[in-house]
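Replying to the earlier thread about multi-chain prediction with a worked example.

Input:
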Amino acid sequence: MKNKTRNLVVALLATMSLGISLGVQAADSVQSLRGRDVSAPELDTGGYVVPKDHAPTARDYVQQPPLIPHKIDGYNITTNFNKCMDCHSWTRYRETGATKVSLTHFKDRDGKELSNISPRRYFCNQCHVPQTDAPTLVDNTFKKAEGLR
Amino acid sequence: MSYDNNRGGLWGRLRGAGLGLVLLVFVAGILFWGGFNTAMEWTNREAFCISCHEMEENVYKEYRNTIHFSNRSGVRATCPDCHVPKDWTHKILRKIQASNELWHHFLGTVDTPEKFNAKRLQLAQNEWRRMKGTDSRECRNCHNFEYFDYSIQGRRSTRMHQEGFSEGKTCIDCHKGIAHQLPAVDQDIGSEKGGAAPEVFHPTEAKPAGG
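Result:
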């Protein structure tokens, strides 16, 4: 009985120390782009402002998914309802004046044309995102694609 | 003159008693009315609404993610602000109708999220119909579109609001599912998911003549 208890305590201590050292290692090795440990709370949590509704932003590079020129707070995409498609779908865009979904979104992954939007395009904000006034994370010399200037 | 003659007599005593009775009824009336109104207002609180787990588990949880629950200025619209009319006549009528909801609470009609979701379209449509019928009266308790300043509204809202009002639309015609999740609506994405037809969500109505 005594031995069992001792073994249990030793095992527990070993696991805990392993856990702690692993945790420290992980935090040391992975840094976020803002220069913080990924495990640490973010230095600057938001406070960024999404610009007021504006006309569509021009693309910066070829094949860029167009940016969202408006706020999307509270616009949910759920199994039941896709809020984006309430304005941007082909059946709705005339009434709402929104940009209609590209016909490329009617193709399935094998390139086969479908008669409506492909389910793989369901989650709009996997590619289309609004912008904020956040500073760039790394210095860069990015220039707009030649043909789009 | 005949009144004077009877003063202090049988009639006078009756009159005295009558006055007392009137006074008693008056005070009882105040007490009853006060009590009645207090009880009614007691049921008009968020805490009372979510004391039923149907509300707490489903609609309240959804509502907590929306702007009417939490926002930058902390002004909230709680359950009764949208679902119970403010003026007395309509409030009492809605309260009487709510006895049906009480009945279904005891029947356990929507006491699990699964049962609730199965009924979501019907429940949502009930509320949409009510809002439409009253020209979104409860919205307009706070959002009075006569005082909209279109110069500081967004591009989209400025255009859509003015178009909508000129077509005789009311808030709920567009602003559905702003405080709770929507029922399944078919939107022509992939195969049909068995949701409601798009016409249910955006009913196409004849525009009023000259509108």
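Chain A has two domains: 1-45, 48-149.

Feel free to reuse this layout for your own posts.
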